[in-house]
Specification:
alpha/beta, Rossmann fold, 2 domains, five-stranded parallel sheet, 16 strands, binds flavin-adenine dinucleotide
Length: 324
């Protein structure tokens, strides 16, 4: 039988990341009969606020208040989790930048299996857990079986498990700060560097027209700008567009770019890598235009258009302008 189930909660300025509700949803699907304990680390009022927020989603919340954990230092948090958790724990983390830093080393320290970037559950047979991952930028689904008798660290892809509208767990916060143990580590926190806002702040926009490598040429970005103007949106992009210096870094959506929460997201020529989708929060209505019907973006899109965007988008813009 699997050990006790935990979810590590990431948060910023007193607000839990969206993955917090997704992790309990995933853990509930994997282990429907086992309670899931949230582990929240930090210090002061922000930590208290996040713990309170988590009572809606988790039956038990372990709060660890420590100055060494005031900033997300994966090395210190790894040390804490090794001190605190049972050896055969099953730990769920988000497969985001922080989770990728934290989880592999944690599984080594706990001597348990590590399963990254999980997008779905495929069955549990005794101590054998079956999950679905994606390879080759989402073009191939892989079915993975792993023995979790000695515990596991499972990273869940953000957005893969849609949480319920609201939580009603009525959980209790248990202060475990006294059990933190020695948290001295080599890695030091220096400072938080805020991402540049640029000429527009895409994090505040309700409608984004986002372009990816499928736009093919810098001159074609005009096509997206015309559509954005017609619908009152702003242009954002995937990372290759920034790498090519076609748009500013402040327009990049993704784990190494901006986190956006639009109501509507048009993805033009974007394949749908997890690094890109990781920057897309708040369950927006996604319209994807891509000439490859097997592009992973179609797995998350509400409306999918299989077409060459260079043909489709100018016609769409024209129709919208005519409609006005
Ligand atoms: C550490 C790390 C961090 C990263 N951070 C980010 C990040 O923050 N944001 C980010 O976006 N990426 C990030 N990436 C890169 C990410 O892995 C992908 O490479 C990137 O998202 C792919 O961008 P894309 O979808 O525009 O390009 P591609 O994956 O090349 O997809 C282009 C798509 O366009 C389609 N297409 C081509 N031509 C047309 C056409 N004429 N009409 C319609 N469709 C067409 C293709 O079918 C394809 O699906 C990161 C990678 C790493 C390793």
């Amino acid at each position: 039988m699997a050990g006790q189930i935990f979810a590590y909660i990431t948060h910023k300025v007193g607000k839990a990341d969206d993955t917090a509700a997704e992790l309990v949803k995933a853990a509930g699907k994997f282990f429907p009969d086992a309670p899931v304990t949230a582990v929240v680390t930090g210090s002061g009022a922000d930590l208290d606020a996040v713990c309170n927020e988590m009572t809606a989603w988790y039956r038990e919340i372990w709060k660890i208040d420590n100055e060494a954990l005031a900033y997300p230092n994966a090395e210190a948090i790894r040390k804490l989790l090794v001190n605190l958790l049972p050896q055969d724990a099953v730990v769920f983390c988000g497969h985001d930048t922080f989770g990728m830093d934290l989880a592999p080393g944690l599984s080594i320290k706990l001597d348990s299996v590590f399963v990254p970037d999980v997008v779905d559950f495929d069955g549990l047979d005794g101590d054998t857990l079956k999950v679905i991952r994606q390879e080759y930028s989402g073009q191939v689904s892989t079915h993975v079986s792993c023995d979790i008798s000695a515990g596991a660290v499972i990273n869940i892809r953000p957005g893969a498990f849609q949480p319920d509208e609201s939580g009603s767990a009525g959980g209790q916060v248990v202060d475990k700060s006294a059990e933190a143990g020695d948290l001295a580590v080599g890695r030091r926190f220096l400072e938080i560097v805020q991402a540049e806002v640029g000429d527009v702040d895409i994090t505040k926009e309700d409608v984004l027209v986002s372009v990816g490598r499928g736009i093919e040429d810098q001159d074609n970005i005009e096509i997206a700008e015309e559509l954005a103007e017609a619908i009152g949106a702003v242009v954002s992009c995937s990372r290759p567009i920034v790498d090519a210096k076609w748009l500013e870094k402040s327009r990049q959506v993704g784990t190494s770019g901006q986190t956006v929460k639009p109501k509507v997201y048009l993805a033009l020529g974007i394949s749908g890598s997890f690094q890109h989708l990781g920057g897309l929060k708040g369950n927006p209505f996604i319209v994807a235009v891509n000439k490859n019907p097997k592009a992973p973006i179609f797995q998350v899109a509400d409306v999918g258009v299989v077409d060459d965007l260079l043909d489709f988008v100018p016609v769409l813009t024209e129709k919208i302008q005519e409609g006005k």
